[in-house]
Amino acid sequence: MKRELRQYTTQVTVIGSGLAGFAASMFALDRGIQTAQIGNTGAVAYTTGYFDLLGGDGGEVIDDPWRGIEALRKTEPDHPLSRIDDKDIRTAFSKFTEALSALGLGYTQPGENNLMALLPGGIAKPTLSVPKTMLGGVEAASKGAQTLIVDFIGLQGFSAKEMVANLSSSWPGLGAETVAFPDMESGASVYVEVMARSLEVAENQKRLAKRIKAVLGDSKVVGLPAILGIHGSDVVHAQMEKLIGVPVFEIPTMPPAVPGIRLRELFEGTLPDKGLMLVPQHKANRIDLNEDGIIVNLEDSFGEIQIQSQAAILATGRFLSGGLAADRHGVRETLAGIPVSQPDNRNDWHNPDYFDAGGHPINRSGIEVDGCYRPLDANGNPASERLFAAGIVLAHQDWIRQRCGAGISFASAYKAVEAASKILEA
Amino acid sequence: MSTIDPAGTKTYDTEVLIIGGGVTGTGIMRDLALRGFQCLLVERKDLNAGASGGNHGLLHSGGRYASSDAETAAECRMESDIIKRMAPECIDDCGGLFVAVEGDDPAFAERFPEHCAKAGIDCQSLSPQEARKREPQLSDTVFAAYVVPDASIDPFHITLGNVHHAQQLTDSTYLPHTEVIEFDIADGTIASALCRDLRSGESVRISAKQVVNASGAWARNIAQLAGCTDVDLLYVKGTLIVSNSRLCNGVVNRLRPPGDGDILVPGGTVSLLGTTSDKVDSLEGLRPTVDEVDHILNEGMPMLPVLRDTRFIRAFCGVRPLLQSSDAGMDGRKASRGFQLFDHEDQGLKNFTSLVGGKLTTYRLMAEKTGDLVTRRMGKKAPCKSASEPLPAGDSVRWTEPGYAPRFWYRRNDPTDAILCECEMVPRSAIDEIVETAPGAESHMTLRAIGLRSRVGKGTCQGSFCAARVSSYLYDSDVYSGVEGRDHMRDFLAERFKGLRPVLWGKQMPQMELAEAFHCGLLGLDFKKENGSGSSS
Amino acid sequence: MTAQEEIITPTIDFQAKAHELLPENASYDSCLACGLCSSGCPASGLHGIDPRRFIRMAMLGMNEELSNTPWIWTCTMCQRCAYVCPMNIDVSVLVGYARGAWPKEKKPQGIVRSCEAQMMSASTSAMGVMPDDFVEIIEETVEELHLGDERFKDLEVPMDKKGAYFFVNQNSREPAVEPEELGPLWKIFDYVGADWSYASKGWAAENFCMFTGDESTWKEMVKQRVDAINELDCKVWINTECGHSFYTMWAGVEKFGLETNFEAASLISYYAQWIREGKLPVNSDWNTGNIKFTIQDPCQLVRKSMGDPVADDLRYVARELVGADNVIDMQPCRSANYCCGGGGGFLQAGMNEQRRAYGKRKFDQIAVTQAQYVLTPCHNCHSQITDLGDVYGGDYRVVHFWTLICLALGILGENERKYLGPDLMDIGLP
Ligand SMILES: Cc1cc2nc3c(=O)[nH]c(=O)nc-3n(C[C@H](O)[C@H](O)[C@H](O)COP(=O)(O)OP(=O)(O)OC[C@H]3O[C@@H](n4cnc5c(N)ncnc54)[C@H](O)[C@@H]3O)c2cc1C
Ligand SMILES: Cc1cc2nc3c(=O)[nH]c(=O)nc-3n(C[C@H](O)[C@H](O)[C@H](O)COP(=O)(O)OP(=O)(O)OC[C@H]3O[C@@H](n4cnc5c(N)ncnc54)[C@H](O)[C@@H]3O)c2cc1C
Ligand code: SF4
Ligand code: SF4
Questions:
Q1: pTM score
Q2: Which candidate among A369, B427, C376, C394 keeps its CA 20 to 30 Å from the CA of A303?
Q3: What CATH homologous superfamily does A6-104+262-423 map to?
């Protein structure tokens, strides 16, 4: 059937919709650059919601990420964070958290030290910025406040008792209760996403608050799994605090969890109104580099789409997101065929011990970039004057163990957009 | 049944002490219980910690040995027939094919039916077309194919079933993580065995009239503990890989002299490709390697090209304890697959028996022979019943069968019976039953112990999600109450990783990355010091 | 045992089928068991199944259970699972296939009967409106319009006009049960001076044959319609305000390799274009009370077909019609939108309890917006959301775009206000 080939022209195309991709789009829009973006569900979909800058080193906690980066510049000069000025990192990080807060998802401003944020198993996470809905957990834990953790009938993988058992030695004032979520009393499995959406309805907030109040006892603070709405969670949060009468905080949960969905839907829901040409939840299948620009090709169910632009930013993530792929013989970058720096042999990809404090070498594989964030070809030259890269697809970092995913994403996106903006024609 | 002696050592009194919780030890336990004896089984780790948990699960028709060892082949044929009748629930009677593909020796293939006939094995020739109809994934270079009555067997179900039945019959006991460290010998008799409970560190003394060493590859060590020097073994390591889905309808064997990567066995919902065969000197710290995995894949692909693009979710290995013989060859493939019973009388012991070698397929026969000797030594007359008494189905031992849990759950149709392991669809009710009544169930049961008795952790995600869900559930149901859940999780995941590591490419890479991000980023399990949040201030 | 129960549903090898029908990297073998699909699927938990479980059961070889589970009739094939999945695994493909394998006698009879009705005449109408009836109803309705409204006394409703630029299809509901609802769209065409035509054959929009899973009848329906359009030699086939009728056509044409000499377009895109071009000079001045509206994006039109651009058009049109501040989006929306539960034949399947459980999320979403009206260009959404409001006590009404466009233009007749509330009953009457 005749259907028009959908062609769009823009200044910059961002490929990837993880933190790096969305940061790149935000920074580009902020500079008044006409921007298009494509990308699918990837790593960020499973996030805690915390934004890490640098939190881990060889199995140890890093308290001061800025000093940590300073040290990194000596020990790991190729690390993406080592290569970016503190000033730019700060600017990128706070621009992003400010922008999110302005869009209705409040985040704390990045400070000097890491916050020790709660995780569902009871171990704390050193991170730089947390959603406002989760900040209460950091505070309650540090004060050892009389706190009630509440879990729900039918919710798998989150146990208030488990948190208490793991934390009670250092946090004696911690209690656990189980309640039934309104309209989910049967005991059948429930998903946090469904609970969160249900809590956007005022009536359900009241019903839940009443049930929590009934078990509150002497507790001065309430901790819930992250269910305080997907949209307008700050409002839901404030409303629940008012209704229960004590501070309330959220704790991240295992996949499929709310924070990742929240971020995706916030971006998808708000950036198009700010001028972003977004093709949500689709991947590019080819890019064509040529003298006067870059064509990003994709296909949705309705047919082919082409996006022509002057520059593109590759923020396609790693294996989980599909930016990198491995076969038995090696790792490759999937879209532009950029060489991937990697261990020589599959036997060296992973250490024998899963929890080896040094992490696994494969996590440090990735693409190399020059000072302008242009991916390098096999000869060490920029693959194209128009192609830039950002995010955890970059080599020489271990976003998982070093707890630096968000930081790398924001800072490198910032630098890549800065570099890309220089080649744009007016 | 146990008492505490004045020195604080827990002591047990039993008729027969059996050492080794593999298929052989548990088979002996059941054999003796069927004859009316009360037994106590000790296992250093947990059931099937040795070769019985690290094998191919092929219930041999005998075809594999027909060309080289007619005796073993015939033994396999007879035993597999018996097991199919006595333990049908543990068997997938899927049949098997022997196929020769381009490059294989036509003469070897041609003689196959003749060899099968000699061993009494039913063998039917198929045209290449017929073979590929039966197994569509076969290479189109197949030039000879024969059907034999191979089957696949669930060694976990067998072992659990043996223990369960023995417990029922004579109140026999199974002690997990209990290692024999010393024998108390007087007058040519082992009076008792001193063991250590490796979980609590406590000593355990077991007095028994008869002691049976069924410790597989460790049999030499145990024999030596008893001062016997007559057991001599070869250690041959074998590695296998598990695919994400079932690739073939039945067993597929390469029709050539036994070599690496030449058998694909269905394991319910998955398939197992193997094996390698390498002599090793030590039994400790063995794990499957990247090179071994590549090797079996390269060997297997000519027969089954589908392997090239197959998603593998795990590799594992086991050690074959083979009887030392002079012409064993470098890889041990030519060593005898038969078994040997040692009465150790020439070593000056009257109540100690060692059973060495053999196969999963012949475990019942091995148990029968051992049972005969022990019965005689006990001065009793009680015939073996394991060839005529079916292995009873037990509620708590049925969860290892792939696909059983979801069917049970689906039929039960109870929406509150939440699924905890989504890949293998294991519901809460299964976990409850295992924790309460499975053989070896104990307080604060580890995730590994639960995994062993179910399909938890065996599916696509290799435990990365279900570890957290099961652990939370165990806290909610008060099985766990301290920080042990976290330790069990770490231990369980580290163990799963050993098997994942060599198969990390393709579709298993994103899975692994998600798992690691979850375990470290969302659970913080990699931190050396556990910074419980409260203590951070 | 009744005769019906004795008919056996053939067992499908789901894993093999998935391998065959899905792209290599988006097949069941790629699933990470992460659960995003299930957490975002409104059919999750109905009959104990959800999309991840569907996939896992296939991988575990539970073919018999899957072949027989009634869950496949509660999955609306909305493809939200594929939308949120990191691997884009589309559960709806095998759901459709499994539906097809059910013996006709066992399938939900409402869907089967609707398909059979479609097969009965050249109309392809699920409500049994024959070609002659259609022509007659149109003629009568036009006549009434001529008499009823002076301004439209010359309005033409072309039938079988060869070479017309637009071929417009028509959902059977209006001619069959509420012909007065036909008027607004005609007025819009008249207003912009569109060169359009209905056809007496293959005019119907709805296609329940697709929902039965029976591909041969799906193909047959699409083919009849394609032939009718080809025959009239129209440039553009415009799909009326109906979701699945758009998907069924273009996807059917592609799936069955049919020859077409026309382009497919949605009426929504043209509304937007005409408003932009000033051909439909609508404004929101009438909405003095700042009545709030929300939009239901039909899955079949947005996520499954044209994606966000058409969702943007919907919003553009809505904002022009009622005022930008008076459009409150449900969240999530556009391509990420939740199916309302009216699609996939669910409304016709007679599984009310499940359908309403499925729709509860939609109801909650609407409740959050506090909108008084839900605007949707889809008949199934319309019926389902109306029913959800009745069942769960919603205080809203559901309207078509054509109603509001005519209202804003001041050309909405008194009898064309069936779906409006008292607040809008008198607005814009001459
Ligand atoms: C379990 C888990 C927990 C986490 N917890 C934290 C945390 O506590 N703190 C924190 O800071 N971060 C956390 N993260 C998130 C992670 O740090 C961020 O996702 C990452 O930093 C963002 O990097 P990115 O945008 O470069 O890549 P990704 O998030 O991986 O995004 C890559 C994007 O590229 C897209 N893509 C790939 N190929 C193509 C193509 N061909 N065409 C178009 N698009 C394509 C993908 O669809 C995806 O949208 C967690 C992640 C996981 C999985
Ligand atoms: C790679 C491989 C593939 C195979 N494939 C097949 C096949 O397809 N078909 C087939 O029929 N056979 C097969 N076999 C052979 C079969 O697995 C073995 O013959 C059988 O499992 C041996 O069982 P077992 O109980 O004798 O020994 P094991 O299962 O090894 O049991 C011995 C147990 O003793 C315990 N133990 C050791 N020391 C002590 C101590 N001091 N105190 C307490 N306990 C102790 C160990 O922890 C161990 O659990 C295969 C073997 C291997 C290695
Ligand atoms: S979202 Fe995709 S990968 Fe995740 S469980 Fe569902 S189908 Fe599998
Ligand atoms: S198509 Fe829609 S209803 Fe069906 S499984 Fe996917 S998300 Fe659920």
A1: 0.96
A2: C376
A3: FAD/NAD(P)-binding domain (3.50.50.60)
